[in-house]
Design a protein that fits this description.
- The protein is α/β, with parallel strands linked by helices.
- It has one domain: 3-Layer(aba) Sandwich (Rossmann fold).
- It is built from 8 helices and 10 strands.
- The strands form 2 sheets. It has a 7-stranded mixed beta sheet with strand order 3-2-1-7-8-10-9. Strands 4-6-5 form a 3-stranded mixed beta sheet.
- Strand 2, helix 4 and strand 3 form a beta-alpha-beta unit.
Length: 258
């Protein structure tokens, strides 16, 4: 048996390949709270996905993992950092079903001030351009879906550091045809206009989505919950029809090609 610490160390290396070591499944379904575990549970439900919209694509690691589970889907990678261009161009060149747009997703088409962190991973729209900030293009998910004629249903992933509400506001048509929504959510308010995860859950429930799963919870150095990936499904999904626990049968996990 591989220890948890060793598995985590190995997974940091495997992340560059789009693979991950997982604990054994229980009763036929993945039980780990990791991105790979979430993908396997979504796949086990036979969730239809026509297009994956990776918003905040960074270097493309998340998309590499998604490709193993949704190889037939179309992909649009949205990323505002030119520093990520080489990695994303390499990824897209190796897959005919991947396209990319270098922009911020938001509630309008135009430009926006974008703060760039020294490690790039903490970059985002934080309400004003700092010393390392720059003006970048902004688009909307609705505009890109229509422009590229991307097929539904949609799987939307948001790794956008508190800028989720403007993105959702610019995706009203897309959300109406979305089967899965995965959001990096925070336990703290990152900007004046951002929301913490309880408010995010309430906002999305008012727009027809309920939280169904989570992955990758992260603690601050002081041991307080900082962030996690929350998975939302349409409120009328079959999994929400029953409120009890013990009588529910588990979906059958499907084999995933690697």
């Amino acid at each position: 048996m591989i220890s948890r610490s060793l598995r985590q160390a190995l997974n940091r290396v495997l992340a560059f390949t789009g693979h991950e070591l997982l604990p054994r499944e229980r009763d036929g379904i993945a039980t780990s709270f990791t991105t790979e575990g979430v993908f396997r549970r979504i796949s086990a439900r036979s969730t239809a996905v026509g297009t994956v919209l990776d918003v905040g694509a960074a270097a493309g690691r998340w998309t590499r993992k998604a490709l193993a589970h949704f190889p037939e889907a179309q992909y649009l990678l949205i990323e505002p950092l030119e520093e990520r261009r080489a990695s994303l161009e390499t990824l897209c060149a190796s897959h005919d079903n991947l396209r990319m747009v270098f922009a911020v997703a938001g509630d309008r088409v135009g430009t926006v001030a974008f703060d760039v962190s020294s490690d790039l991973d903490g970059s985002g729209v934080y309400g004003g351009r700092g010393a390392a900030g720059r003006e970048v293009p902004m688009t909307t998910l609705d505009a890109e879906v229509e422009r590229l004629q991307l097929p539904a249903p949609y799987f939307i992933k948001l790794d956008t550091h508190g800028f989720e509400l403007p993105i959702l506001a610019g995706a009203q048509k897309t959300l109406a045809k979305t089967s899965v929504l995965l959001v990096e959510a925070y336990n703290f308010q990152l900007t004046e206009d951002s929301v913490r995860f309880p408010e995010l859950c309430g906002h999305l429930e008012a727009h027809g989505f309920r939280c169904a799963d989570l992955a990758d919870p992260m603690l601050r150095p002081d041991g307080v919950l900082w962030q996690m990936d929350l998975v939302f499904l349409p409120s009328d999904s079959e999994c929400f029809a029953e409120s009890r626990f013990a009588t529910i049968s588990r979906p059958q996990a499907q084999a995933v090609p690697v």
